[in-house]
Each structure stands twice: as structure tokens, then as C-alpha cells.
Amino acid sequence: MARPSCSLFGTFLTYYRGQRHLFVADLVCAFVVASVDLAFPQILRALTAGLFARGSDAILGVLLYLGVGLVCMYALRFVGRYFVIFWGHVMGARMESRMREDLFDAYQRMSFSYFDRHKSGDLMSRLISDLFDISEAAHHGPEYLLIGVVEIVGSFVILGTINAPLTGVLVLIACLLVAYNVYANWRMRSVYTENRERISQVNSRLEDSLAGIRVVKSFAAEDVERTKFRRSNTAYLDSKTRMYRAMGRYQAAIAAMMGGLNTVVLVMGGWLIAQGQMVPADLATYALYISLFTTPITSILDFTETLQKAIAGFKRFCEVLATQPDIQDKPGAPALLVSRGAISYHNVHFSYNFAATAAAPSAGGEEVIRGLDLDIEAGKTVALVGPSGGGKSTTCALLPRFYDVTSGSLTIDGQDVRDVTQRSLREAIGLVQQDVYLFDGTIAENIAYGCPEATLEEIHAAARRANIADYVESLPDGYETEVGERGSHLSGGQKQRVAIARVFLKNPPILIFDEATSALDNESEQAVQESLSELSRGRTTIVIAHRLSTIKGAQEIVTMEHGRVVERGTHEELLSRGGTYARYYRMQFADGSEDVA
Ligand code: ADP
């Protein structure tokens, strides 16, 4: 992987490594193509100026050799062109593919706070469109420059030898062309930028609408979505229209300038012929070289647009590679050794904004956990209850180090979670959340997620313990049934039990249930609750409880408010104490619901 500390250009060059042979061959072929293009007008000149004057017999003899020579030349050009187009693009695609892997690896290394700060659409666009721009510049850049420079310098020298004064005028007009091109590109940049913004708005709208399609349908809000989409789509169309208008103006102006150039050359060349300072064959050759001289100039200038996009994209790419994850293993950190599974939070403080603003002067942010002290005995089930926003989920997120405590300590069997490897820590903790994420694939693949070496017997056993085996085995394809995008072919309760089977297979000594049954109906909840009780047997378990039925299984209940423990005890103890928990409990009976949080 590229070293993020290198300069932008140095990092870029590392991606050519491993492609050296292709790179050199690409440049050689580009040189051959440019040389053949340069040679043709010279051959025509020799033919018209010298050969036709010698008589038909001499012409026929030479034409045969000339024909064979031209066929060989164009065969060479064909091979060169094919190589440049095919292998040049393959070289760029390989570089793009390596960059994509590096970027994906970097995303995988990032901590939760990074994903809190960046939208997934933005991260996706870095992976797709930015890298495409970079690869375009990576393979077209060297070849355009080489072909362009060979053609410009070659044709300039040849034009100069044919007629120096005329070449002087040509260079003057070429300078005007360059100046106009620079100006037009500068004017068009804002149009291109606007166009990119508009398309990304269309994409975001589309992404948002499709991701929330169930909500859209349930609110019969298709017309609202259609109107919003039309608005962004029309804005995109308008910006495209502006872009094409600018492009039309630019192309037409370049064509007009080329026309002017041809006119000047013909008129001035004709005058030079009339003065006896030039022969007609030279003028014809001159006309052919003009486009060889001017076309690469405009191509190179146009290429600067691609280059600018690529540089901007590569900067963003390097930014990601250079970002150090907030949470890292200490050098030489040992693996966590869980002997019993006792958990201890000691005077823990935490604020979400701390990591995000650590580099900024205003580091800090409102504390979400304020001096939390909590000991959980090994093998016990402890329920966290309290008002929404009280810090229950955050407390749990600190245990697997999704975020690091701002101060205080958090230990498992006496080992601080910051002193052990993240891998061993996360292997020791099983998480069952309210939002179950199933990956596109079969039920078996989803149960075995994270344990790819699991045998079929182990997968089936995990499904049985999670109370999902009977249902899966009743399906025509059994464990090979596809779950659909995000598990859309399964009900909420079935998805939750697949997620529980995953944890059975993982077999961790510590469990976190974060409102695992909150989204389920009563019937599914009961089945899932049984699976959860079976799963938590003999393991240290923290349950974020939403429903009373979930709390009843807990040996201890901890009430949290404003990031602190306000009381703890058994259900009966807390009720008799008449504190916060008792208040929630009474409120719940008052409105007849089962919710306590
Ligand atoms: P609970 O689980 O008790 O409902 P949470 O731990 O989810 O409480 O939230 C505690 C506080 O932290 C809330 O004020 C919430 O808005 C805030 N919070 C939760 N997650 C994040 C996050 N990823 N980034 C910033 N603030 C967050």
C-alpha cells in the first residue's frame, strides 16, 4: 500500500510500480504513432515535389516501394495504436484497482467516529468517480504528453525548414489559440463544477428515495418524492444545457480560429509562391502539418481539465489514506484473555465530539457519559434502563471500543480494553441489536458471517439454538435460501433469530443486547426472547431493555440518567425503593404499555 506520508506526486508514482514494462511499452508505441503521423506529409511532399517531375517510368518503380513502405508504416501505426488504447487503459485500470483496494482497506480500518463524520454517498463517490478520473489521467497523461510533444516539436521543426516566415505567423496564431483555450477552460470550470454538484444531488436523492422506499410507500408519498426528484433532475438538465452551450461556443470558436489559420496560411503561402519563395508542394505539405501542430496543443490544454479533476480526486484519496483511525491497537498489545468475563466501568467520561474535534482548538463537546461507575459480575445478566438519550447504548458501545472513553477506565477481567488487541476484544463480545443487518447471500452464509470456517453441522446447530432451524428447514432451499437485500425476504423476528444464530456460532463469553426485541411484535418477541435467554446462559450479558419482559430475566437492573447510574438492584428492590425505576414502572402501568425506557 502507498505510504500516506509521501508527497502527492511521490504517492502517485508508487502506483506505476509493477506497471513499468507496460508504461515504457505504452510510451514507445505512442512515439511510433506520432512519428508515423509526422512522416506522412513529408512523404507526400517528396512525392509531389521531386518524384512527379521524373516521368512516369520512374514513378511506377518508386510507387511500388512507396506502397509497400506505407503499408509497413501503417501496420506499425495500427499495432502502436492498438497497444496504446488497449494496454494503456489496462494499465490505468490496474492502477485504479490497486487504489480502490487501498481505499477500501483504509475504510475498513477507520473507527466509528469517521463514519459518523462522513456520508456514505461521499465515501462511495471517492471509491468510484474520483478513482476513475485518476486512472484516466494516469494512462492518458503520459501518452498525450508524449504524442503531443513529439507532434508539436516535430511539426514545428519541419514547418520551420519549409518556410520560416510563415512558421512565425503560425506560432503567433497558435499563441492566440492557447490563450483562448486557457480562458475558455477557466470559464467552463465553474460550469463543470456545477454539473458535478448537480449529478451528485440527483444521485443522493435517488439513494435516499430508494433506501427509504418502504417509508415512502407507507406514507403514500410517491408524489412528494417524484416532485423532489424532478426538481433535482431539472436542475441537472439545466446545468447540462449550460455545459453544452459553453462546449458548443468553445468548439465553434476553435474551429473558426483553425479556419482563420488555414486562410492566413493559404493567402500568405500563395503570395510567397507568387514571389518565388515557396513551391506549391511545400504549401500543400504545410497545410497538412498545421493540424499536426495545433491539434495536440488543444488536446493537451483540454487534458488539463481531466488532470485537474484527477489531482482533486487524488488529494481526497491521499487524505483518506493519511487519516489515522481514532482507535488503534497499542504496539505489541496482547490479546484479551477472558477467564470469567467480569466487566468494570470506573469513573468513565465520554463525549462524542471529543475525537472529532481533537485536532481543532475547540476540542471537547458535551459529555454523554459523566463519571460512570459500574461493575458487572461474571456470568450475570444486567439490564440498563432509563430515559431515551440517557447513555445506555453509548455505555455498551464503549465496551468493544467502538469509541474510546475520554477519561476513566473500562476493564474486562482486569484488563483495560485499550491495552488489548481490538480483534481479540471484539471476538469476546457478541452484539445483538435492534437493527439487524443481513448481508446479501444465503441464510447459511449469514449465520456463518465472521466464522467462515464453520461446518454445516455447526451452522445447523446454531440455527437450532436460535429457534430458527424449523423455519429454515421448511423452506424449499433450506439454508441456501437467499435473504434478499438487507434480509428483505425474512420477517423482523426471523432476521433477529438469524442474527442470534450468528452469535451462537461465534460463542463469545460476553453479550450485549441493544434493544434486540424492541422492533418485534409480541409473538416474535417471545420466540426471540427465548433464544436470547438460551444465548445468555453462563455469559456476562448487558441488556438494554425497552420492554419489561426483557428486564425480568435480568439478575440486576441499573437505571441510567444523564450518563450516570442513578440506582441499581433487583426488580423488587428497586420497586420498593420508590425511585426512578419505580416511577417508570408506575408510568408504564398508568398508560397500559409495557415500555419502560
Ligand atoms: P440511550 O441509549 O440511553 O437512548 P444513547 O447512548 O443512544 O442513549 O445517546 C446518548 C446521547 O448521545 C444522546 O444525546 C445522543 O443524541 C448522543 N449520541 C448518540 N450517538 C451519537 C453519535 N454517534 N454521535 C453523536 N452523538 C450521539
Automatic annotation (TrEMBL):
Transmembrane segments: 21-44, 64-90, 144-162, 168-186, 252-274
Subcellular location: Cell membrane
Keyword line: ATP-binding, Membrane, Nucleotide-binding, Transmembrane, Transmembrane helix
CDD domains: ABC_6TM_YwjA_like
ABC transporter domain: residues covered: 343-587
GO CC terms, sorted: plasma membrane
UniProt-recorded Gene Ontology molecular function terms: ABC-type oligopeptide transporter activity; ATP binding; ATP hydrolysis activity
Principal cellular location given in the protein's record: membrane
UniProt superkingdom: Bacteria
InterPro entries with a match to the protein in the record: AAA+_ATPase, ABC1_TM_dom, ABC1_TM_sf, ABC_transporter-like_ATP-bd, ABC_transporter-like_CS, P-loop_NTPase, Type_1_exporter
PROSITE patterns: ABC_TM1F (PS50929), ABC_TRANSPORTER_1 (PS00211), ABC_TRANSPORTER_2 (PS50893)
Membrane topology of this protein: Multi-pass membrane protein
Domain ABC transmembrane type-1, first and last residues per copy: 27-309
Pfam families recorded: ABC_membrane (PF00664), ABC_tran (PF00005)
Protein name: ABC transporter ATP-binding protein
